[in-house]
């Protein structure tokens, strides 16, 4: 009963995290006339404040000294911070410049790019269904390039940057709250310096657009941290396969907002491209669920066999093993 309650709580946290990430395109336009880089700088500065309060409440500081003593890990953290800042900045710019649908495509194709990185960088071997999904995904990009009259650069840049970020995080092996704190701490001084420079130049919107606008910019820290905290709570309570399915909620919401709320154009070629992407994701999800089910069945069979062997009475003296082939 307790396990069921934990899983139910984890699902709620997962829906909360991906739901907030999916609805965030409604938030960024509220920050206009701030530019994407100014919003990004505020997001970095205020995120550090939020996660610092969270770490203070949880008393989780010991990892900082360990990180500082590991130059390689610190360098990877700096690289992760740089990559995610590109991802964040491009996403904010996309939403505020009428490219919500194209941005959502980036997160739809992100799993396919992650698989490709696994093959190219980690030398992983793909199953047939995974190769099929990657092939269909590549065809989708071609169709979309024809439809747009250019490659979907925003989608590709968002997918590649986030997949690269995931690859670096895999090598770092840090908790979500800790890694966000380290990344924002490394970005804090450049971001704060940029905001100070804007103020000196008289180009800052933080103080010139009223108290409400200032509060909205400060809330970017909460917008960043709260979904991540919910995601961390979900990750320890639900199976990874379930979490993998929930991740599609965010781009589905973003796509729906782009079409239904922001009224972005969806000509037939674009529908065809998105349709191919969705086919690739269905194949990928089916293969992942099938593989997970088979792995659980093998583990259950091995456990049953081990229990049976331990329960069976052993002979007084076991015969020597035969060297003849069976």
From TrEMBL:
Extent of Pro residues compositional bias: 316-326
Subcellular location, record wording: Cell membrane
Record has Membrane as a keyword: yes
Domain EamA: 9-144
Record-linked InterPro entries: EamA_dom, EmrE-like, RarD
Transmembrane segments: 12-32, 44-62, 74-93, 105-122, 129-146, 152-168, 180-200, 212-236, 243-263, 269-289
Residue ranges with Low complexity bias: 302-315
Membrane topology of this protein: Multi-pass membrane protein
Pfam families: EamA
UniProt keywords, alphabetically: Cell membrane, Membrane, Transmembrane, Transmembrane helix, Transport
Region (Disordered): 302-326
PANTHER family: ACYL-MALONYL CONDENSING ENZYME-RELATED (PTHR22911), SOLUTE CARRIER FAMILY 35 MEMBER G2-RELATED (PTHR22911:SF137)
NCBIfam families (UniProt xref): rarD
Family: Belongs to the EamA transporter family.
Listed name of the protein: EamA family transporter RarD
Organism: Streptomyces racemochromogenes
Gene: rarD
């Amino acid at each position: 009963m307790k396990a069921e309650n934990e899983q139910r709580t984890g699902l709620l946290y997962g829906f909360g995290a991906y739901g907030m990430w999916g609805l965030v395109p409604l938030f960024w336009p509220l920050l206009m006339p701030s530019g994407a880089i100014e919003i990004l700088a505020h997001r970095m500065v205020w995120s550090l404040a939020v996660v610092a309060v969270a770490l203070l409440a949880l008393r989780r500081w010991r990892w900082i000294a360990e990180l500082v003593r590991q130059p390689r890990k610190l360098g990877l953290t700096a690289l992760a911070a740089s990559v995610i800042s590109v991802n964040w900045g491009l996403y904010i710019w996309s939403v505020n410049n009428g490219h919500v649908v194209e941005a959502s495509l980036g997160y739809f194709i992100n799993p396919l790019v992650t698989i490709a990185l696994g093959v190219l960088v980690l030398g992983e071997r793909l199953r047939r269904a995974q190769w099929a999904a990657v092939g269909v995904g590549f065809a989708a990009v071609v169709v979309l390039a024809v439809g747009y009259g250019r490659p979907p650069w925003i989608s590709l840049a968002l997918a590649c940057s986030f997949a690269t970020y995931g690859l670096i995080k895999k090598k770092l092996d840090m908790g979500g709250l800790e890694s966000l704190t380290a990344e924002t701490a490394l970005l804090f001084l450049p971001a704060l310096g940029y905001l100070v420079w804007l103020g000196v130049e008289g180009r800052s919107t933080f103080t010139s657009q009223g108290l409400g606008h200032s509060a909205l910019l400060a809330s970017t820290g909460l917008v960043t941290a709260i979904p991540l905290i919910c995601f961390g709570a979900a990750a320890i309570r639900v199976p990874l396969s379930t979490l993998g399915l929930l991740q599609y909620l965010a781009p589905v919401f973003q796509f729906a907002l782009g079409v239904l709320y922001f009224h972005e154009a969806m000509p037939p070629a674009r529908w065809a491209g998105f349709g191919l992407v969705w086919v690739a994701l269905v194949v990928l999800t089916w293969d992942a669920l099938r593989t997970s089910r088979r792995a659980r069945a093998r583990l259950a069979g091995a456990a049953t066999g081990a229990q049976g062997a331990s329960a069976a009475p052993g002979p007084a003296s076991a015969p020597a093993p035969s060297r003849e082939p069976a």
